[in-house]
Amino acid sequence: MIEEKGILFVLSGPSGVGKGTVRKALFEQDTNLQYSISMTTRNIREGEKDGVDYFYRTHEEFKEMIDTNSLLEYAEYVGNFYGTPRQYVEEMIEAGHDVFLEIEVQGAMQVKKNFPQGVFVFLIPPSLEELKNRIQDRGTETEDLIASRLQEARKEIEMMEAYDYVVVNDSIDNAVQKVQAIVQSEHCKKERVAKQYNKALLEVEK
């Protein structure tokens, strides 16, 4: 019997493109997916649970994990560290679960360096004008900040070549269907199936 392992899928794209919305809609439809739980040095808040919302660690523990390459990516934000623990991702994959990591472009490039066997999906808006409208619709940012985000988005879109797949987020339903097709396609890849099948054949021969 073939024991199918999971795959790490990295969903990335410019700020405001709708990564979180697509990821949530995807998880509502697919129960085998595991969301990658991040690690942080910030204090646990009321109602949060360790190992559910985040893995909570001290600054010293986090820095030790950086030194031992135990994180797939990390960043510092407002005095606290945030990152993706390698062990959690590998354990979920070994157990047969697909792990989804929703992350900004810079973080995705760190993951690609540390975990190149992952599958990298780039979510883009139908146009920069549409991206501008989405950011404006949030109603939380000034015109200067919106202009800065769009400038950064142009740079990030130029990094599309580093990804395995590109999905245009013209509508949530369409984007989710395309990501689901990518997941199915990756599980049917010859290299992946052959490796698992050969392992199963060796077990039979024993």
TrEMBL record:
One of its GO terms (cellular component) is cytosol. It is found in: Cytoplasm. Pfam families: Guanylate_kin. It comes from the Bacteria. Keywords: ATP-binding, Cytoplasm, Kinase, Nucleotide-binding, Transferase. It catalyses: GMP + ATP = GDP + ADP. One of its GO terms (molecular function) is ATP binding. InterPro entries: GK/Ca_channel_bsu, Guanylate_kin-like_dom, Guanylate_kinase, Guanylate_kinase_CS, P-loop_NTPase. CDD domains: GMPK. ATP binds at G13, P14, S15, G16, V17, G18, K19, G20. Essential for recycling GMP and indirectly, cGMP. NCBIfam families: guanyl_kin. This is Guanylate kinase. It comes from Gracilibacillus oryzae. The gene is gmk.
